[in-house]
Structure formats: structure tokens, C-alpha cells
Amino acid sequence: MQLGFIGTGVMGTAIVLNLLKAGHQVTVFNRTKAHAQKTIDAGAVWANSPEAVAAVSEVTFSMVGFPQDVEETYLGDHGIFKGAAAGSTVVDMTTSTPTLAERLAHIGDEHEIHVLDAPVSGGDIGARDATLTVMVGGDRATFEAIKPIFAVIGKTINYFGTAGMGQHAKMANQIMIAGTMTGLTEMLLYAKKAGLDMDQTLATLAGGGANNWSMNAYGPRILAGDYTPGFFAKHFLKDLRIALDEADKMHLNLPATRLAADLYAAMVAAGKGDMGTQGLITTYNGWED
Amino acid sequence: MQLGFIGTGVMGTAIVLNLLKAGHQVTVFNRTKAHAQKTIDAGAVWANSPEAVAAVSEVTFSMVGFPQDVEETYLGDHGIFKGAAAGSTVVDMTTSTPTLAERLAHIGDEHEIHVLDAPVSGGDIGARDATLTVMVGGDRATFEAIKPIFAVIGKTINYFGTAGMGQHAKMANQIMIAGTMTGLTEMLLYAKKAGLDMDQTLATLAGGGANNWSMNAYGPRILAGDYTPGFFAKHFLKDLRIALDEADKMHLNLPATRLAADLYAAMVAAGKGDMGTQGLITTYNGWED
């Protein structure tokens, strides 16, 4: 199928490579062209704007950074909605606000363009290995039509309901991870200061009620001093801010999530937003003694 | 072997039954005798005090509620140290303070009594199925001598070092769980208010980076309105208080753990300390609308 992809970061590049491998034709755009080179080398075709990508694509995907980037990508002077033909489908895979997802779906309706929100989890490794979890909101018939393409890039494809519900599911995911990341960070700090054998502590906790994905994935990296991003801290902060904004709209108080956002905000303020989320531990006094 | 066991609560009872099944003779004491009946029916022998239990036991185990109960059990007028013979071993399985564990080991040294701290994780189900994780501190030779008995009641038996290190490992475990429980609680609240399908949300998150033991064990119970204790909220609060006290001693600031303790303190203050830890969600505005 003739596909478009806007946003060839680490995740986007890996996804495009899988789409090409499956035999799809993919037209790409990225704000920094150099970062699209890997997909071009693999057979993707470059276009000069989101508008130009959408104009030649039956289905256009986007995975950009922040909600304001999503707005620019869809609603800008050379945005997707300028180029997409009636009857085509656009899919935002950025983790963005449920409110914006609803707005894009509404604009799509006016132009007979099918709009889905489809944020993912699973990180760079999931994107590379096509094991992403995809959380989809929007029109169900559009989802069913697109599902085979999702199956090329992910392992678990879940439809959660109307526009914005994919984003809500992703927010739930991030709220859960806020708990595992803060818990992991403070557990490792305590264990280190108490003089526990760190590898043995990780192995022991993994065998019981404390077990969790973040600990198994990031615990060993932290012990090795590896804070390179699987997932950028600045993006996780953005996600938590969205979750808290949405919680406010729902009149919901989430103190632990708010504290996690505060801790990540301090990390970003300390110039560490380009570290992976596991770098949070470097912002605690006592870790790097 | 001739064993003693003090504290036949839900956990203690299950452990004693496994010890009896393995062919050991077990003498028991519990503050409320009625709660020891199940072990007596299964072949345990009742004694009237910790002192009396220790006097007839080669190895005496204790699993009581709070650190002050541990003090009373070991150091009271009819405590374990009054009855234990030189050369015998005593093992505190209560989750208690590392500081108290060190103190008991020191007193034991003076009387030629071997003392271990050996808190466990795995809850009532782990105790029943003999799949507990046991975290041991104290003299290594004593640990090695006792290890076959631990193997009767647990699956993963870990020696962490000198007296108190078993307790420190357990504190690390509880700090990690503070993160998974607060994250789980706020995730479920958000998901419910956002109108997500709750079962689908749990299943989706379990397939990715948000996966954790607490979510898998307690998520379905919460959705079923089941707040019966696998682990008492009041005991979890006690554990977090100990962790934070120890962190203070180590000059370590653990804000997420402190927030979790505040949330559980509010739960206990609301008269919900006898609920399971998963009952935390009932203290959030918006869950029981």
C-alpha cells in the first residue's frame, strides 16, 4: 500500500523500516532531513512537507515530539490536512493529548478524512522488533481497515473506542510507569546506601511481589551507569503533564503522578531531559557519591 | 527437628503447617490462643509464652506484627531470650527495623544464642504454597545450618549479610512496591474516569513496559471490589515508616516513598488499616462514585 510517515526519529525510523520490509511503499518527511536518511537508504521516498506526504499516501502516519508538533504537522500551512485526499486515512502515533485527538478527528470528519489516534508503547526495541503495543482510538471501521498495517509494526493491537481513547489508554500506561520508575529509583538508592549487594537485590525482588518491567529493563542499566535513552526523560515529563491536565479536567487528584512529574521536571530543569527515564536516579542526592 | 514458632497469624499458621508436613515437631505460642488452634489441630504443641517455646526448641521462629511486638517477644519478662538455651538459634521473620535486628543479634552474642533476621515476601499465598522469598541477615554459618528449614517454607532463600541486612533487603522490596501500588491505584482511577474498558486496559498494560506484579495480582481484585487483605494496609504503612526512618538515618531523601506512606497513613486514619494494600484506591475521591 502507498503509505506516508512523518517523524523519522528513533522510533519512527524503526517503524518505517518494518513497513518497507513488509512491501509497502513509504513516503517520509522529517523536520531534520538528515534523520530520515536511514529510511531513504532503505527505499523510502522523501517529500518536502507533511502536506506533500499526505497528498501521495492512502494512509499517513505521524510520530512527532510534543502536542504542539502534532498541531503543526496536521494544521500547519503545509500540514497533513492540506494534502490528504477525501477518503484517505491519517494516524497520529505521537503520545499527545486526548483533547487534540478529538479535535483532529472532528476536523477530519469535515473533510471526509479518517483520523485515528494510535500511540504505542514498547520503546525503541519494540519498534525495531515489531513488538509494539498499539492503543487505538477513533472510528472502528477505519481501525479494522488499517489493522493489518498495525500488525506489521506491533504485536498487541488494541482498539479502545472513539477518538482520544487511544491517548487515554497511553496515559494510563504512563501513570503506571511513573509508579514503577519512582519506586525503582528510590529502591536502588536505599539498597545502595544500606550496603546491599545490588545484583542480588534486583534478582531477589524480581522473584516476588516487587517484580516489574521497569526494574528488569532499567535496573541493570542503572547499575552499569547507562543512562542513554530508551525513552527520553523530557518526553516522559510531557506525557505526565498531559495525564495530569486530563486528570484536572476529570476532577481527579493524582498525587503520586504529580510528584513523579515534579521529579522529572527537576531532572529536565537540571539539563538532563535527553537522558533516558532511568537517569532520574542521578538527580537524587546520594547516588553519585 | 524440634522447632518453635511464635505468631500464628495468617502467614505464621501457613508456615507452621508446612513445617509440620515436612516432619518437624513444632511448639507454638500466639498472643490470642484461638488463632493457634489450626496449627494445634495439625499437630503443633502449645506453650504458654515465647520463653516456654524457646526453652524446648532448637530453632525458634517469630513472626509478629510491629517492631514493639518483636521487642516484647524477645526481651519481655517471658520473652525468647529468657528461655533460649546457649547454642540454640532464633529467627525473626517479622518485617521489623534493621536497627532492632542488630540489637537482638548483639544480645544473642552475649548469651551464645544465634540470631537471624529473615523477613519474607510473597504474602499469604506464598506462605501456603511454600514459595516465599526469604531475605536473611546475620551470621553466615548460622544461615547455612538453618537453610534446609527455610527451604521447607520458601522458594528463594537469600543471604544478604550481617544482622539487619535481611531487613534492609525487605525495605528495598517494600519501597519498590510503594511505587507499583501508588502507580496502579492512580492508573485505575484515571482509566475509570476516562471511560476506558478496565479489563482491556489491564491486559494491554500487562503486555508492555507498564507490567508489574501488583497490577496483575491486585488489578482484577480491585475491579471486583475485593479489598480483603493479602497484606494489611496497616502493616504496609509500618514497613514504609521503617524504610523512611532508616533512610533518614542514612541521610537519604525518598519523596515518592514518603508520599506513599502519607497516602497509606490517610487510609489507616480513615479506619481502613485492616483492608489489603489494594484498598488504597477507596481513599481516592472519584473511585466510588
UniProtKB/TrEMBL annotation, chains A, B:
Domain 3-hydroxyisobutyrate dehydrogenase-like NAD-binding: 164-282
The 6-phosphogluconate dehydrogenase NADP-binding domain, residue ranges: 2-161
InterPro entries: 6-PGluconate_DH-like_C_sf, 6PGD_dom2, 6PGDH_NADP-bd, HIBADH-like_NADP-bd, HIBADH-related, NAD(P)-bd_dom_sf
Active site: K170
Pfam families reported for this sequence: NAD_binding_11, NAD_binding_2
Sample GO molecular function, one term: oxidoreductase activity
Oxidoreductase found in the keyword field: yes
UniProt entry tagged with the keyword Oxidoreductase: yes
Keywords: NAD, Oxidoreductase
Family: Belongs to the HIBADH-related family.
Name of the protein: 3-hydroxyisobutyrate dehydrogenase
